[in-house]
Amino acid sequence: MPTIQPSLQQQVQSLYSEHHGWLVGWLRKKLSCPHGAADVAQDTFVRIIASRDALFGMREPRAYLSTTAKRLLLDRARRQILERSYLAELALLADSLPGAPSPDEILMAVQALGQIATALDGLSSKARDAFLLHYLEEQSQAAVAAQLKVSTRMVQKYLVQALLACRHACPAMAA
Amino acid sequence: MNRPRTEVAAEQAAHWIVRLSADDPAERDTAQAGFAAWKAADPLHASAAAGMENLLRQLSAVREPAGGDHRPARAALAAIAPKRPRPRQLAAASAVAVLLLTGVLALGERPAYLLADLRSPTGQWSTHTLADGSRLTLAGGSAVNLRFTAGERHVELVRGDILVDVAKDAQRPFFVDSGQAAIRALGTRFTVRSEDGATVLSMLESKVLAQVPQHPAVVVQAGQRTRITDDGVGPLTSIDAASVHDAWRARQLVVDDLPLAEVLDELARHRPGQLHYDRAQVAGIRVAAVLPLDDTDKALQLLIDNFPQLRIRMLTRYLVMVDAPAKK
Question: Distance from A64 to chain B by nearest Cα, in Å?
């Protein structure tokens, strides 16, 4: 371990000092807001450092950095669409709600939804629907089976698949 | 060998948890007892179970802001789900949403916008001088890609509203490419606005040639406006070019006898977050006003001042609702 630590640190250090300025400039051209560019650049480094393996043997750091940053931008866009859709639907219900939901509550819900969506991405559409109909909409397993036109046993199988997928996709959330 | 053991535990936990919410109460009771014994048997079991139970708690927590209603969560997940046929019930729910939120929800928004060459954030204008000396002004929430070659100049309108002041260069035609048409100019000034399925072209000076693929090209002259769709260039209507230009420069929305709904749609384009209104209740209200587009809070205030029957509520700064409740 002690032999790895310093070289990891050096790797990060040199990656940061040689390319951070370049990445911020690159992002600034993509985004119009300079603060956004700095934030995404920061997140990009954090993500790369978190996946230590990538640091070693990185042949073209700038290509790697810009690919990671692009992925982060797409994540952001996805989160924004998620949040807007959530708020829009919430607005439709607003009159029937007892009180206005707090921004904190909304933020937590949107974050959890983002993680759940990512977890469900790899599933078949039936497994995904079974999971949401049963656990989010609280429909009985028989009702889900009828809606998906499969057996109740099959619904249970889908639910197991979905629970396992969530565990794989967001271990932090399940921990 | 550690990993397979946790995998096995996870699988077993998932099976137990599914049985806990079985339809048959007797099976649920059996599962409850069995699950408890299984968890007690091994700390590894207990932690696999705790992870999934926590996950399901988080899932039910996403209903809380909506007072337990699952629809906002469902709609949000549907908006970013990979494209595939949706179950019937869900399709019905979103049809309702579309009816009530016409023109407000930018669900079609694609990340292409984020990766465009030039963009302006919602509510902020920006002006750029391009390599050839042409000037491009982007209204808030707009984005373009630029492609200049030796023989041609292209500006691709990704979204929003732009004012183009083309530098003359007879050798190098200037094109604005929108979703519907290619608009070709030599040296001129005009605005192009991207709407859902249409492009609105307003000529301020000189003329351009607007071309929709498979349709004849149409010359559009100064003082004319047209709505271009995939079916071709629409009828030409006349506009006051000078006041359109002034409004652009002052970042104003100048309206003369326009339905309030259309004015609110326009304000919504220029503010971050959501602006919803009750279409039925605001129907029949018509507006003649000059409203600041770079300060939509003020614009909304001006509307309330002039139409006391309107009610404007802000749930958060990003969620504004407008209606006109009937007086008791």
Answer: 17
